[in-house]
Design brief:
- The complex is a heterodimer of chains A (about 500) and B (about 500).
- Chain A has about 500 residues and is α+β, with helices and mostly antiparallel strands.
- Chain A folds into three domains: about 300 residues, no CATH class; about 110 residues, no CATH class; about 55 residues, Arc Repressor Mutant, subunit A (Orthogonal Bundle), CATH 1.10.10.
- Helices cover about 40% and strands about 20% of the residues of chain A.
- In chain A, the strands form four sheets. In chain A, strands 1, 2, 6, 7, 10, 11, 12, 13 and 14 form a nine-stranded mixed β-sheet that branches.
- In chain A, α2 packs antiparallel against α3, α6 crosses α7 and α8 packs across α9.
- With about 500 residues, chain B is an alpha/beta fold.
- Chain B has a domain of about 325 residues: Amidase signature (AS) domain (Amidase signature (AS) enzymes).
- In chain B, strands 1-3-2-4-6-5-10-11-9-7-8 form an eleven-stranded mixed β-sheet, sandwiched between helices.
- In chain B, β7, α10 and β8 form a beta-alpha-beta unit.
- In chain B, α3 packs antiparallel against α4, α6 packs parallel to α7 and α11 packs across α14.
- Classes of the chains: A alpha+beta (about 500), B alpha/beta (about 500).
- The interface between A and B is large, with 29 and 44 residues.
Chain lengths: ~500, ~500
């Protein structure tokens, strides 16, 4: 809804992001309207629960079912959540906003109108810094954020002749976050939504759970010749995963380019993305031919609050991803990439900090990113369900630092703690995983191997890189517990190389 | 004690006698149930609830016996069928809500039950409160208990609270709830010689009352005299957290304010209310009202409310606009009428075509039109601007020291059933010309009977007050009530 009016060319796409067509390169212009479900106990205008997955129509108040004479009463927690989100987006908070009715008939819309904020939204312009790649950062401007009601859900698979309606979602609070058309590629769109989700999860204002429908987007796409006049846009409605958002943009851009290169014209319309076919298709004209007849909702007073209300929320905001990243780089000496990876999820950042506190930050980051994240990804696990606690991982790192175990043993130890649990130091002691630094014991092993392999000794003396074979043999014999440095030194000395 | 006596009481009198145990709440209720049965020709009730009434009266007697009487203990009342009543069918006078039984009680009616009142039944009204004659009800027109002198022509009781006004005037109940969006309390009160007050917007909760035009709707009582009306309003009014537009301020004891001197009160007489075609009876009545207030010590001043002429057209944009949206929920999906259709859109269309009457359909169409893209600015937005100007007119008058404004209530006395219903709808809308401004400005407005027309029909005067100064209106109205020749009640020709 924002393309036409907004000032556009704050940035031109990186030439690498242009799409090559038969007539030359094309640039994608994209803006998103993200619908984020507000994290709250009860709905925007009723006391019914917002819990997901309940039996159909079990979370429905008289207001949600639009019974005669029922009136909406604004849930103040939803207001606070919207303001927190606005602050997280570095946006202007409007101390006075109003609610409007958006009128249309649909069975899952009991009132016959959605209460939304059309004219005066609660949050105005803001900005999100997005890391598209470790080396590329863009700014996406926010046009507005407003509060509105979600609709219910039509169920078409319950009866052969009838459709059923589940009103559990009816009236749940959504924040619609409208970006300016500052996005220039599918990658940028994905990175933007990921960042938005990250900010809201840090704030606790939206759980960002796409499977449960907590985050959906309407995607506006147009194409143009780089630096040329703007094209006509199409809006792809209700795309419900970050992956599909990217696919929808690419598919739609290609469709538009093909039409334009054939000498055709783009018709401004509302489309749907079909993930199975990987293409967008026009919605039936009936589905979009709405005149919503917006007007101020006479059941609700204007929403007004003062600076103190905003300040109280601002004071309690958590550290957000950008600030945390900067701090991780400064305090722990992390690279921008590592810090970026660690702060994407608040839980991961907290985990890292618990590990890194009082230890080598870079070592902690390596362990968290490579070992822990790698293993979590392999198992499809979330960090909050990681079998190795931050305290345990810290203990493992401490065992490396003290020289008690080698890096290699540490990985085995990590595996043991992951699968069996237990205290790392205890496991090392009980299973005799300590590094052998006793030169006498290593020396005996070295002597035995040299004595048993005279041919290899000769080879090694001729070609010093053969030393590795001896190291391997010694490690094997000591069960990997020998201090590799001591083994190296002893071998060199005894082989005379 | 003869039963007739129990049907000729004032609410205040009944309240006091019940406490004195002169008769029981059950006897009083029984007398009214009997009167209702005899008066079915008036069609004032859509639903009678005798069993509930008897149970409530019994409980009231028990409380009276224990000396735990509430302010309305044992008082039989009628409830406009726009108020949702738990377990009792609520229709809003519409086919589309036929069969709908709410699981909840409106805030205002629940406050009446809290205070001990007894429910006799649900009162007829214009469909969704849209009308000025009670002829648009799906359940048939209400016949006024009043007739012109020497005539048997059936007259309208006014609307939309026609059932309420008729039932009160015919002594079927001691008082009734009503609602007023553009005059729906005051015009029927004027037509039936009863007292009705539309309180300040926000004074009574709208929760549980079927919405017509949310920014204008307000609940209020109709009763047979000023004191009874004041008693009822005290129970009906109050802040309700379930209605965001209700106002959190204490409810005064309106009855206690009665009788205070009006000496020195400034009464404004707006010249814009002298409209073309107004009956000479009405003009004479207005002058008489001025004289009575002056005689009681009030200062009379001429004032100007320059935007009055625009109020009616603006009202007929704002009210239908809100109604078109408020009535969207009656779609056949969840409750009330459903006409089967080929698909969902066909079901909507058939249900709404069959469920809504002509006047409601007309207003939905007008409302939809004025909110449409391309017309919003020209109609809805301009109407809202006019609304602001109307409000400002009143604010300026009050700022200049006016305590209340006296106007006629209606341009004429009651008309015959069918007389205007087939004419140009504008003709009917003109009935609201003196009352809509008050809704547009959110002010309190009270109508009190002040005399009879040449044909022997009641005529009323309207008092308009400052926001939340209902007490002033009651005080002034009682002065008129006392000074005016007794309008009385219609003879019970109906049986």
């Amino acid at each position: 809804m924002t393309h036409a009016a907004a000032p556009l060319d704050i940035r031109t796409a990186d030439p690498k992001k242009l799409i090559a067509g038969a007539t030359g390169d094309w640039e994608i212009i994209c803006g998103l309207e993200v619908h984020a479900q507000v994290t709250s106990q009860s709905k925007l205008f009723s006391g019914a629960s917002t819990g997901f997955g309940a039996e159909a129509n079990s979370h429905v108040s008289l207001v949600d079912a639009a019974m005669p004479g029922m009136l909406p009463v604004l849930n103040e927690e939803c207001v606070r959540q919207a303001v927190r989100t606005g602050l997280g987006l570095k946006a202007e908070i409007n101390k006075r906003s109003t609610f409007d009715r958006k009128n249309y008939f649909y069975p899952d819309l009991p009132q016959g109108y959605q209460i939304s904020q059309f004219k005066s939204p609660i949050v105005g312009e803001g900005e999100v810094v997005v890391d598209v790649t470790p080396s590329e950062q863009i700014k996406v401007r926010i046009e507005r954020l407003h509060l509105e009601q979600d609709a219910g859900k039509s169920l078409h698979d319950q009866s052969p002749t009838l459709s059923f309606v589940d009103l559990n979602r009816s009236g749940v609070a959504l924040m619609e976050i409208v970006s300016k058309p500052d996005i220039r590629s599918a990658d940028e769109a994905r990175a933007y939504v990921t960042k938005l989700r990250s900010i809201m999860r840090y704030l606790g204002t939206c759980d960002g759970n796409m499977e449960e429908g907590s985050l959906r987007a309407d995607v506006n796409v147009s194409v143009r010749k780089p630096g040329g006049a703007l094209g006509t846009r199409c809006e792809i409605k209700n795309v419900n995963s970050i992956r599909f958002i990217g696919q929808a943009i690419d598919a739609e851009a290609r469709r538009q380019i093909a039409i334009l290169e054939d000498g055709g014209a783009i018709v401004q319309e509302t489309r749907l993305f079909d993930p199975a076919r990987g293409e967008t298709r026009a919605m039936r004209s009936k589905e979009e031919a709405h005149d919503y007849r917006y007007f101020p909702d006479p059941d609700l007073l204007p929403l007004e609050f003062d600076d103190a209300f905003i300040a109280a929320l601002r004071d309690k905001l958590p550290e957000l991803p950008d600030a945390k990243k900067a701090r991780f780089m400064a305090d722990y000496g992390l690279t921008s990439y590592d810090a970026g990876v660690l702060v994407a999820e608040r839980e991961a950042a907290d985990y890292f900090e618990a590990v890194a506190r009082g230890r080598d930050g870079k070592l902690a980051a390596n362990w968290v990113i490579n070992e822990l994240f790698g293993r979590l990804n392999k198992e499809g696990l979330d960090i909050v369900h990681a079998p190795v606690s931050a305290a345990s991982l810290g203990a493992i790192i401490d065992l490396i630092g003290s020289g008690a175990i080698s890096g290699k043993i540490a990985k085995d130890l990590f595996e043991i703690v992951w699968t069996e649990g237990g205290d790392p130091a205890k496991i090392v002691a009980e299973r005799g995983l300590q590094q052998v630094t006793d030169t006498g014991a290593i020396s005996a092993a070295v002597d035995a191997i040299i004595a048993a392999n005279p041919d290899k000794v000769a080879q090694a003396q001729a070609k010093p890189t053969m030393l590795g074979w001896f190291v391997g043999q010694v490690m094997k014999q000591t069960g990997g517990k020998a201090n590799p440095q001591s083994v190296n030194e002893l071998l060199k000395q005894k082989l005379g190389i | 004690m003869a039963k007739l006596d129990l049907n000729n009481l004032t609410l205040a009198g009944a309240r006091d006698s019940l406490r004195a145990r002169d008769y029981s709440a059950q006897e009083l209720t029984e007398a009214h149930l009997e009167a209702m049965e005899k008066a079915r020709a008036l069609n004032a009730f859509i639903v009678e609830t005798p069993e509930q009434a008897r149970a409530m009266a019994k409980a009231a007697d028990a409380r009276l016996a224990k000396g735990e009487a509430g302010p309305l203990e044992g008082i039989p009342l009628g409830i406009k069928d726009l108020y949702c009543t738990q377990g009792v069918a609520t229709t809003a006078g519409s086919h589309i809500l036929e069969g709908f039984v709410p699981q909840y009680e409106s805030t205002v009616s629940s406050q009446l039950w809290r205070d001990g009142a007894v429910m006799l039944g649900k009162l007829n009204l214009d469909e969704f409160a849209m009308g000025s004659s009670n002829e648009t009800s799906h359940f048939g027109a209400v016949t006024s208990p009043w007739r012109r002198q020497g005539s048997n022509v059936a007259l309208v009781p006014g609307g939309s609270s026609g059932g309420s006004a008729a039932a009160v005037a015919a002594r079927l109940c001691l008082g009734a709830t009503a609602t007023d969006t553009g005059g729906s309390i005051r015009q029927p009160a004027a037509f039936t010689g009863t007292v009705g007050i539309k309180p300040t917007y926000g004074r009574c909760s709208r929760w549980g009352i079927v919405a017509f035009a949310s920014s204008l709707d307000q609940a209020g009582p109709i009763a047979r005299n000023v004191r009874d009306t004041a008693i009822l309003l005290r129970s009906m009014a109050g802040f309700d957290p379930k209605d965001s537009t209700s106002v959190d301020r204490p409810v005064p004891d309106y009855e206690a304010a009665l009788g205070s001197s009006i000496k020195g009160k400034t009464i404004g007489i707006p010249k814009e209310y002298r409209v073309d075609g107004m009956s000479p009876d009405i003009e004479a009545l207005w002058q008489q009202g001025i004289a009575w207030l002056r005689a009681a010590g009030a200062n009379i001043v001429d004032i100007t409310l320059p935007h009055t002429a625009h109020a009616l057209p603006a009202y007929y944009i704002v009210a239908p606009a809100e109604a078109s949206s408020n009535l969207a929920r009656y779609d056949g999906v969840r409750y009330g009428l459903r006409e089967q259709g080929r698909d969902i859109v066909d079901m909507y269309e058939k249900t709404r075509a069959a469920g809504f009457g002509k006047e409601v359909r007309r207003r939905i169409m007008i409302g939809t039109y004025v909110l449409s893209a391309g017309y919003y600015d020209a109609y809805y937005l301009r109407a809202q601007k006019i609304r602001t100007l109307i409000k400002r007119d009143f604010e300026q008058a009050f700022a200049a020291g006016v305590d209340a404004i006296l106007t006629p209530a209606t341009p004429s006395a009651a008309f015959g059933i069918g007389e205007k219903s087939d004419a140009d709808p504008i003709e009917m809308y003109l009935n609201d010309v003196f009352t809509v401004t008050v809704n547009m400005a959110g002010l309190p407005g009270l109508v009190v009977p002040a005399g009879l027309s040449a044909e022997g029909l009641p005529l009323g005067l309207q008092l308009i007050g400052r926001p939340f100064e209902e007490e002033t209106l009651f005080t002034l109205a009682q002065v008129i009530e006392e000074a005016a020749p007794k309008v009385g009640l219609p003879e019970a020709w109906w049986g």
